[in-house]
Sequence to fold (79 residues):
Amino acid sequence: MHIQEKEIEMMKKNRNDYKRFSFIFLYLSTFLYIGSLLPFDDKSTLNTSYCMLASCLLLSVSLFFYTLMRRLEKKYKNL
Fold:
């Protein structure tokens, strides 16, 4: 394999990993958001705030990995 072929293969693997990470964090964010909306006993506004904060944080991490994936995808298509 040439060096460029190895780089292309590594880019494909990284792109797939970033895509998986993005979806995992998106699913976790959705799970926490739904958990913050559902009523249950002993629910306080502090617990709801923590769930919403964690949901927003995970959503931003998901967006970060999605942008990394898109950059690698553009770079791959330009080769």
User: Anything to note?
Assistant: The CA atoms of residues 17 and 56 lie 21 Å apart. The chain has a mean pLDDT of 91. Helices lie at 3-37, 45-78.
